[in-house]
Predict the 3D structure of the following.
Amino acid sequence: MVLCGAVALLVMLLYRQGMIAVGFSLGAALGILNYYWLHEAVGALSMAGQARIPKLLVAKFLIRYPLAFGVVIFFFKTRWLPPMAILAGLFVPVAGLLIEAIVQIGGGLA
């Protein structure tokens, strides 16, 4: 995932699109953070024998979408960064997961 975001960021910087690159980086960071918090929550929920879920984990799980929505709305209203670049960055985890799925399927077929 991080590699997908870094490659896209490098391409944007090569084309001298600084503000778009910053917006994309912000969106990618939010998307990757969102993914890791979700991964952590699912891992904790799937652990057998654990009676209670930590409160910090529940807070991270509940804050994921309001945080991303708030950042996008803030930059949409202030126009400091291009909101479409932020939204594109939010899809970096999707690209990483698709590439990983292709690699896994290719490895299983070989």
User: Anything to note?
Assistant: Residues 11 and 21 are 9 Å apart (CA to CA).
